[in-house]
Known about the structure:
The chain has 70 residues and is mostly beta strands.
Amino acid sequence: MPIYSYVCKDCGEKFDLLIGMTSRKTELKCVKCNSKNIERTLGAFSVGGSGSKSNSSGSSCPTGTCPTCF
């Protein structure tokens, strides 16, 4: 199930919701003020890997130019 980030246009609260397959039937509303005036936003995410952090071979960034390569 995907996690979506939302912001309430009434109170400004930023929150995440886990949305299941029945989301069409679920009423989405602000977790703080219960307003239905919410907007889905882009959420931050991270991709983890195993092993040491390096820009050598074996890294998930083949060019070594990603900001996550150290």
